Every structure is written in structure tokens, then in C-alpha cells.
């Protein structure tokens, strides 16, 4: 399983370990991935995802999965997240059509 975030496709970065003598050796900065289940209020479903801790904080700040997906541009999202966002947009449109 790859070390990538399921929402924003954040992956590991590379850099250097730098010793006191300024010797540089290559290293890898892995993403802090968390296994979470995020509910969608609009769809009434729960989605199991493996997302980074930074993304999880952003999801909480934006008011949940629906608010996060609606406020994020499509080119930043993964294919899985785009499918969920498309379902949310369709469900909201159907709800508005039923109310009108």
C-alpha cells in the first residue's frame, strides 16, 4: 500500500539528514497517515479513508467532509475524492429541485 493521502494525494518528500560536520545523507519524510471514517451529511454515508493528519485538521476546520470537498478545487483532489464530491453536488441539486 502506498504512503499517499486518499483526499489530497499527499506523498512522501525527500531531503537530507545533516550531521554536525555538515555531511548530507538522503532521507525520506513520510506522511503522517491516519485511518479514519468520515461521514457525509448530505449523502448519509460513511467513507473509510487513509488521510494525512494535516488534511484531517483541515477537514475538521471546514466543517466535515462535505464542506472540505466543496471548498477544494478538483485538480487538488484524488479520483476517489472527486467521485464523492460529484455525488454530493448531484444530491444537493436534487434536493434543491425537490424544494423548488
Summarize the structure in words.
36% of the residues lie in helices and 28% in strands. It is α+β, with helices and mostly antiparallel strands. The chain has a single domain (13-99), classed as Ribosomal Protein L24e, Chain: T. The strands form two sheets. A two-stranded antiparallel ribbon has the order 1-2. The protein has a two-stranded antiparallel ribbon with strand order 3-4. Strand 3 and strand 4 (45-52) form a beta hairpin. The protein is elongated. The termini are far apart. The model has no long low-confidence stretch (mean pLDDT 95).
Backbone structural class = alpha+beta
Inertia-based shape:
elongated
CATH topology: Ribosomal Protein L24e, Chain: T
Q: Proportion of β residues?
A: 25-35%
Highest CATH level, the class = Mainly Beta
Topology:
Layout lengths: L12 E6 L5 E6 L3 E8 L4 E8 H9 L3 H6 L8 H21 L1
Antiparallel strand pairs: 1-2, 3-4
Brief descriptors of the model:
two-stranded antiparallel sheet; two-stranded antiparallel ribbon; 100 residues; 4 strands; elongated
Amino acid at each position: 500500500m502506498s504512503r499517499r493521502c486518499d483526499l489530497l494525494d499527499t506523498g512522501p518528500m525527500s531531503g537530507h539528514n545533516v550531521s554536525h560536520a555538515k555531511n548530507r545523507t538522503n532521507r525520506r519524510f513520510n506522511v503522517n497517515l491516519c485511518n479514519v471514517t468520515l461521514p457525509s451529511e448530505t449523502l448519509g454515508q460513511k467513507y473509510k479513508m487513509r488521510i494525512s493528519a494535516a488534511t484531517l485538521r483541515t477537514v475538521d476546520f471546514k466543517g466535515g467532509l462535505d464542506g472540505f470537498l466543496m471548498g477544494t478545487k478538483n485538480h487538488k483532489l484524488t479520483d476517489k475524492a472527486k467521485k464523492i464530491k460529484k455525488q454530493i453536488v448531484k444530491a444537493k441539486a436534487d434536493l434543491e429541485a425537490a424544494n423548488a
